[in-house]
Amino acid sequence: MTGEEFRKLTPAQLDEKLPILQVLARSSPEDKHILVQRLNGGLMPETQEQWEEAHPNKSYEKYRDLLLPGYKEEWAVSRGGVGEVVGVTGDGTNDGPALKAADVGLSMGMSGTDVAKKASDIIIMDDNFASIVKAVLWGRSVYDNIRKFLQFQLTVNVVALTITFLAAVSGYNPPLNAVMMLWVNLIMDTMGALALGTEPPMLELLDRRPYRRDGSLVSRPMWRNILVQATYQLAMLVFLLHRPDLFDCEDGSTHHFTIIFNAFVFCQVFNEFNAREIGDKFDPTRALSKSPMFLLVIAFTVLAQFLIVEYGGDFTQTMPLTLEEWKITVGLGAISLPMGFIMRLIPVKEDPASFAGIGGNDEDKKDNSWLRVLISILFPVLCAIVYQLLLEVEELKEDYERYEQETAAAAAAAAAAVSQEL
């Protein structure tokens, strides 16, 4: 489209062209400014006075829906109240308004004017457009690293809170005491952020369409991953909670809770490898040599866990485990890795409406993301509760059978005593 054709459009007509507009040729700096305003709503006239200041000698009532860039109320209705994330490059003085209206303004450090530099957010010091690509790549990498950390953190939260709740309902003391929870939080927050937040960028990130401004930070595949991992971990921990006899330890003892704690921590250690991918690709060891911080965090976590279990004593309320118990608890945690492969076989795709561009603005589509979030969180919790109830029912049956046997034995003994007296 040319600048002359662009200036003849009404706001409504321009909104129809925006998803397919790629080049605006022979355009003026004002056209650039109007295009940015229409895309993201930045510096859009909000009142009649502001509109009349932008369009002198024009009637607000007559021309407000005919002249670009439009006005805030009309733009909000047309664009669904959410604009695009817009980046603008410029080096001249006339580019200042467009750079200021953009979400990210990029000016040239060597050839750009002082006005352009002051109006921009980023100054490209070498005037090389390849630097813009690198900035976009790192920006997407940081965004994905935050999502990886969220995926890992939400899984730990759901499992830790649910197992503590179920233990309380069953009449146990909390299997994870205050010191254990502090260590888990350290793994989850500080260690997890260091490990997953420092992942290097991959060039394949540039193949993905950009996300909308209101796109969900936690995607559908992420909820799937959280749901599957939390369900496995809860089922395994509840099983260990009710089967202390497998390790020849007393129910609810320090030995019993140490086994649960160790299995839980190693679940998180191996799930941290799964969290390195938030989509359908399963490659937990990819580019590990480029993530020294991740390897350092994993090594520190394993070493610290060993020291806590073996030498924590009364402070951490743990006791040393045998070699066989270490093998079993680490093995149970390692099952998180094959679970990471299995869960990615479940066909769950990202919501197309979360992407910007064509097909990303479906106004007729209802937003039911809150319902998916609620179901994803509650499903593993409900599964664990149902499992817990089944175990309680089995225990009641055993208690009832034991009561009947004791009653029958008491009745038989009484009858024998009576017959002896007679």
Give a quick set of tags describing it.
single chain, 422 residues, mainly alpha, 3-stranded parallel beta sheet, 17 helices
Please give a structural write-up.
There is one protein chain. The radius of gyration is 31 Å and the shape is elongated. Helix 9 runs antiparallel to helix 10, helix 9 runs parallel beside helix 11 and helix 11 packs parallel to helix 17. The longest helix has 53 residues. The protein has 17 helices and three strands. The chain has 422 residues and is an all-alpha fold.
How are the elements arranged and paired?
Blueprint: H1 3-7, H2 11-17, H3 29-40, H4 48-54, H5 60-63, H6 72-78, E1 87-90, H7 96-101, E2 104-108, H8 114-119, E3 122-124, H9 130-169, H10 178-197, H11 220-242, H12 254-274, H13 292-311, H14 313-316, H15 323-334, H16 336-343, H17 369-421
Helix pairs in contact: 9-10, 9-11, 9-17, 10-12, 10-13, 11-12, 11-16, 11-17, 12-13, 12-15
